[in-house]
Amino acid sequence: MTIIDYATCYPKVAALTDSSVKTVVEPLANMFISVGFPKETLSDQKVSSYILVSWQQQLLKFHDS
Predict the structure, then answer these.
(1) CB 22 within 8 A of CB 30
(2) I need a labelling partner for 58 at 20 to 30 A (CA). Which of 5, 32, 40, 51 fits?
(3) How confident is the model over 6-45, as pLDDT tens digits?
(4) What is the pTM of this model?
(5) How many other CB atoms sit within 10 Å of the CB of residue 49?
């Protein structure tokens, strides 16, 4: 997974074994913890609304802990 900071264009990279919500959330949350949680995210991938809601719910668990 590659994340680009929209303001600075600085990339961050994490190796993933698959693209399931459970696999993606932990490294993504760890990246956000280091720089802060975004108010908005952008993606170049088509994501179903079910996956997006599930992803946001899982990510909030990291944010609140």
Answers:
(1) no
(2) 5
(3) 888 889 898 989 888 778 888 888 887 877 777 777 777 7
(4) 0.57
(5) 7
